[in-house]
Amino acid sequence: MFDDILANVREKTPLVHCITNYVTVNDVANSLIACGASPIMADDEKDAVDITSLCDALVINIGTLNERTIAAMLKTGKRANELSHPVVLDPVGAGASAMRTNTTFKLLEEVSFSVIRGNISEIKSIYRGSGTTKGVDADAKDAITGENLDGTISLARELSSRTGAVIAITGAVDIVSDANKTYIIHNGHEMMSKVSGTGCMLTAIIAAYCAANPGNHTAAAAAAVCVMGLSGEMAYEKAIKNDSGPSSYRTYLIDAISKTDADILKGGMKIEIR
Predict the structure, then answer these.
(1) Among 5, 20, 64, 97, which is least packed, fewest CB within 10 Å?
(2) All structural domains of the chain with their residue ranges
(3) What is the percent of the chain where pLDDT is above 70?
(4) What is the mean pLDDT of residues 9-26?
(5) Are strands 38-41 and 57-61 parallel, antiparallel or unpaired?
(6) At a CB cut-off of 8 Å and minimum separation 6, what does 57 contact?
(7) Domain over 3-273 is classified CATH 1.25.40.10
């Protein structure tokens, strides 16, 4: 299903500009290299616009937000739009503070995004215009279940129609949707939540996949989510075999991303399309 999408990333080696969470920036860079892309980080507005002009995609992650980087996010987002580069938003903690929430809506107002990736609480906050999150984690009461899956798909499709972006909601069950087509993905492992930055890593990988597959961003985002989830499963198997903990698991996860090709993905992905 995703053979060409994965192959295009390794063939084209897209350069991805990341304005991202400084807690996870090294893992973001390494995950991009592992998937076949190339990272560059620049978050000062005097530098960032020039850098994004050289790149193939842009990530805007508000995980460690400050006034200085907000200006860079807005300017680089507009420049990437001018160049028709995919721009991926990670609205970390939207709904947790006024600054995060207001910045998210300012970005959505001034920048056109190809993909918005967040947990269910962050996406609901964008959908409703307000909300609550547990810090930067999803609120347990928002968890996607069999009972609310159809409603969550409808929410994702409506938000996609409203924003023009592919909506990627990640958690125990992942949903990737545009206004008409939805991928429901059941890959992943709960140990991924024990490592800081797996969401940030995924957002960057989505950007790389979209850059390498123009005009097919929904499938590209779904493929990236599948690769990340399956890598999480493979990393857990290795951690159990080696009696390892979260620190080793983080390394195994990046290793697994680097090893996952179309054949491995085809044999392990758990996906439904509606």
Answers:
(1) 97
(2) 3-273
(3) 94
(4) 97
(5) unpaired
(6) 14, 15, 16, 17, 80, 85, 86, 87, 88, 207, 208, 210, 211
(7) no
What is the phi/psi pair of residue 66, to 5°? Answer: -150, 165
Q: How far apart are CA 191 and CA 158, in angstroms?
A: 31
Tally of residues, the chain:
274
45, amino acid identity: E
CA atoms within 13 A on the CB side of 185: 28
User: Could you read off the pLDDT of 74-99 as tens digits, one per residue?
Assistant: 999 999 999 999 999 999 999 999 99
Q: What is the pTM of this model?
A: 0.94
Q: Can you tell me the distance from the alpha carbon of 168 to that of 191, in angstroms, rounded to the nearest whole number?
A: 20
